[in-house]
Amino acid sequence: MIITDQAKSYIEKMMKENGEINLRFTFEGVGCCGPNFGVTLAEQRDDDKVEVINGINVSVDKKVVDATENITLDFEGTEEDGGLVIKENNNCC
Length: 93
Hints:
With 93 residues, this protein is α/β, with parallel strands linked by helices. The chain is 19% helix and 44% strand.
């Protein structure tokens, strides 16, 4: 996983506003390409894969570790009208 500098700035701002210190990728079911995941500001769980990426504490539910390995988390838009985007570095469907 890659977290761009623009995404890092946005995530740090959201963490400060929400009093959270961890970005967590969660299991959200299974699709045609395998497990689907969500992204939230939440505490890590005991069985998560935990690492620091570009200065951001990241935990990943073990069910979606493989699905998140080849993604880039980026920011698009403006401060007033922007958000995180997930770019997959491989397409399966």
